[in-house]
Amino acid sequence: MPVLVLNSSLQPLSVIPERRLIVLLSKQKVTFVDENVRELIEESIQLRRLELERPVIVQLLANVRVPRVALQPTRTNILLRDDETCQYCGKRSRDLTLDHIIPRSRGGQSTWENLVACCKHCNGKKGNRLLKEVNMHLLRQPRALTQEYAGFFLLRYPKLREAYEQFLLTAMGTPMPQVHSKHGLSA
């Protein structure tokens, strides 16, 4: 089970492997947000057998300044934004391609607004034509993946995302309902 590292301001910073957690703990750089998890980890470390079955969230003791970086429309980022779902037919798959809404052969660029995840069938059907030429429609309009949203690289770790959302609700004094949000916290 990966470990979520939060800044001292509770902003998600990264997801790290269990081994990195041991290093951060030994250098006294983090604290646990859940006392029960802390006890389990300490017992596991004493037994020299760290096997995490529950999501682990730790908070840095010192704030780390995170530079703002413009995210690029890479294949990984497009698939993350589109939730590994074909934006034409809605098929979910890990075996998706990218499609240029306005084909490159017609001047389309490789931008956030012009790239979507697409299954091979729909990509073949559309080819280098415009959507109206093949009577196809987008499920949702593509837009740039912002850094705050991408901070939810947690999308790749649904159990960590749920644990983080519940932690935030608890920290705000709100009861912990089950969160069924598709993409994590709403803006």
Automatic annotation (TrEMBL):
GO terms for molecular function: endonuclease activity. InterPro entries: HNH_5 (IPR029471), HNH_nuc (IPR003615), NA-targeting_endonuclease (IPR052892). Keywords: Endonuclease, Hydrolase, Nuclease. It comes from the Bacteria. Pfam families: HNH_5. Residues 73-124 form the HNH nuclease domain. Transmembrane segments: none annotated. PANTHER family: OS07G0170200 PROTEIN, SLL1193 PROTEIN. This is HNH endonuclease. It comes from Dictyobacter kobayashii. The lineage of its organism: Bacteria, Bacillati, Chloroflexota, Ktedonobacteria, Ktedonobacterales.
